[in-house]
Amino acid sequence: MLLNNNLHRPLEVVLEIPVKTYDIDFMGIVSNIVYIRWLEDLRLKFLDEHCQLNQQIEQGYAPVLAGTEIEYKRPIKIIDQVIGRLWVSNLGRLKWTVQAEILSNNKLAAVATQKGAFVSLQNSRPIPIPEELQKKYFEHQKENFKD
């Protein structure tokens, strides 16, 4: 999995992530499943900052996750300082893709890509990407590609 190594990270959010005792597996490192929870925490922070979930629900739609791909680079232990970063890497008409990285003591510990869509709460069918999110994303794109 290749990660977008340049600094162009539309709508990036950053989250300090505490490692809890219950995150540790029998090997003394963070369990694989915990990374999935951390990605959920990052997506929730993204929604808080860019497209509030409670407003989506009031308007009759919500995001759904269609897939997760994660690559583990190094183990994380309970004493490590962990930072998560998540940003939009692609925003189509109906589908979105976010990329994330988990850093442990400022070293890359995992990279992930998640894909999803927004769906109607009435019929569970995909809807176009919310206008507010499209606008923020494309404004960010314009700002970063000015001549």
Automatic annotation (TrEMBL):
What GO molecular function terms would the record report?
fatty acyl-CoA hydrolase activity
InterPro entries the UniProt entry points to: 4-hydroxybenzoyl-CoA_TE, HotDog_dom_sf
> What CDD domains does UniProt report for this protein, alphabetically?
4HBT
Top-level division of the source organism's lineage = Bacteria
Mark the transmembrane ranges: none
Q: Write down what this protein is called.
A: Thioesterase superfamily protein
